[in-house]
Amino acid sequence: MKLLTALITLLCLAGCASKKPIIDKKGVDLAVYQQDLQECQTYAAEVDKAGKVAGGAAAGAVVGGAIGAVFNGSRGASRGAGAGAVGGAAKGAASGEREQAQVVKNCLRGRGYRVLN
């Protein structure tokens, strides 16, 4: 369980270093763009990444436990649940990252920027 908690914490911290979108800078006031980008990133921070990580871990634990039980009884269920939880947490974290990036891009497009990626 300690390993799972450490992994989830690392995944959430890794999300703090999200990549900036690439925009067409022709005719763009970069000072205004930086202000808009910061505001859009604030909106993106409202995405419930922790909930996605927890939901992914729970779903992964259920599936992993069921598969482990089929192959190795209760001992396999325990190990399978742990492995499934870690994999599910990683998948949930990735999903949260993608959603945050999409919120930033949508926000910038709404403010008139041409987002290239």
N-C termini distance: 38 Å
Give me the number of helical elements.
3
Low-confidence stretches: none
Number of domains: 1
Mean pLDDT, all residues: 79
Radius of gyration, in Å, reads: 19 Å
Keywords for this entry:
117 residues; mainly alpha; 3 helices; 77% helix; 0% strand
The gist of it:
With 117 residues, this protein is mainly alpha-helical.
List the helices and strands and how they pair.
Layout: H1 2-14, H2 30-44, H3 49-110
Helix pairs in contact: 1-3, 2-3
Describe this structure in words.
With 117 residues, the protein is an all-alpha fold. The chain has three helices and no strands. The protein has one domain. The chain is rod-shaped and about 65 Å long. The two termini are 38 Å apart.
